[in-house]
């Protein structure tokens, strides 16, 4: 049985919760799906028609292409004349203000001839017409040639080049002024620019009506196909004109089918499609990954990831914003692989790609490309422990997608340098794939965000935590050096066992380094830290000694909380003794008080017992490594007897009843312990004794060398 698949009974609440989550998931995906009918035909211009003879079943127009319509709109735009209203009151008010200002000047400074010239110039400016600088810039940017100036019901067309902007109107005042001896400096002192105000204002309502009238004169079609007319026959080469007619036929069919009944069928089809995929996911997790179902954070992460990608794809498709190939779909498989496992990453990635493909018109290339990229990403992330692995994953997955898409292009007859855009490879897709591959690199910083939000712990974080230069481990090596050496030894042994039985080696290694950090609070009370034969337990009652020994678990959990160690590491601290007994002090106390009923709980750890295979490995390794230090002699027999006795006792006491570890795994662990402990303690074979008391010199020297 899979170690991820711990058995548990499904209650009606679990079933109801799964049903509600699945229903909400299906509803959200279907709600955002585009409702347009899908194409029933797949063809390429310049290639033979792959179907039978197509005869028009009804009359329909031949719609113009987007390029044709755009060209006609550009042609019509040359006829567009925006409307501007002439504000006569503006000139009246400004001329009145100007005359008042000029009268305030003395006749010696500003003779009557000068005043008459200025008033005439200002009147001419308003007669030509002034528009605001913003309107003038917009007319030039849109290449508008003429405007319509109206006052009341009368309107006349005037060229744009004849209209003045405020700056041009001000410059017009100085024309021929020097012929009267009126210098520019004199005119400037009069502040004439304050009397120049636009008298032509843009009328948006009339202008829009005129533009819509021009657009209405355009015909969206360029002919008709009559019912019964042959459109194309099998084997005929599809031309540009044929493609235009076939596209028009599809639009006509979609328009005729745009009834509530047809839309209902589309929605039903989408529900059926999404429901099947969701049910496959639900069955997968119930059959093979029940641990993930029981974890809310795992369910939440999976649901959010599986929702985000299809909804983002729907958004881009519905609004035709960007190519879907810009989305880094491979990132989902990276996250699931790092925080869960390879099989779940593969299955989740397949389901996500199929859900996203529902929004696309021609999904085959998309499905093939993204599946290949996701598979390679999973293969290359077998054990994420370095940042460089993300770069390698991005490179390999992107290269795979480029190769797959290029292969499909060549299969469909596209060429690197084709005659038309339809027969030529679309290099923009390849650029989009490369950009999405670059975005996969950002999975690394996003992992930290996911860890903080959902409480996961990646292998990269475990590697960083296992650095012995970290503050907590460095302090352990200083305060309790014996415990630190013990933890290092346990970490190496436990990681070796995990590799042999297929458990998470980096996780158990990191957990082993921190499992005894609580001993720092009372380091001298633990044998490995005692020097000079001083044992503080000799002055204490056995029950008090047991309390101090047991407290290192609670002290370790408190330290882990203070230093914000991940929950998965803290679990190693609380489970590495399970609900075991401090046997030495229990037996001592019982011998000292033979008539007393001993409180068993006073000598027991609070637990819990190991819940995962990794925690079980640490429990076995911790007990074996600590006991091995007390052996009087290190021989194969003594080490084997010690390992078998300790682990068999743990099994008999039921410490592994709640974790997914098998008897085969336990047997493998025993073999690893025996082999490694023999190497660590350098066990030697026993030399045979000579029957004769005399020992040859050469033999004696040889034995001494071996010794």
Structural features, described:
- With 707 residues, this protein is mostly helical.
- The chain folds into three domains: 12-36 and 266-454, no CATH class; 80-216, no CATH class; 478-680, Hypothetical protein af1432 (Orthogonal Bundle).
- Helix content is 59%, strand content 5%.
- The protein has 29 helices and eight strands.
- The protein has helices at 12-31, 66-77, 88-103, 112-128, 133-141, 166-172, 184-189, 204-216, 240-256, 260-288, 290-293, 296-319, 330-339, 342-357, 364-380, 388-411, 427-440, 443-454, 459-465, 471-479, 481-501, 505-514, 542-562, 567-575, 583-592, 613-628, 636-652, 663-680, 697-706, and strands spanning 54-55, 60-63, 83-86, 146-151, 154-159, 200-202, 221-225, 230-232.
- It has a four-stranded mixed sheet with strand order 5-4-3-6. A two-stranded antiparallel ribbon has the order 1-8.
- Helix 20 (471-479) crosses helix 21 (481-501), helix 21 (481-501) packs antiparallel against helix 22 and helix 21 packs across helix 28.
- The two termini are 49 Å apart.
- Residues 695-707 have low confidence and may be disordered.
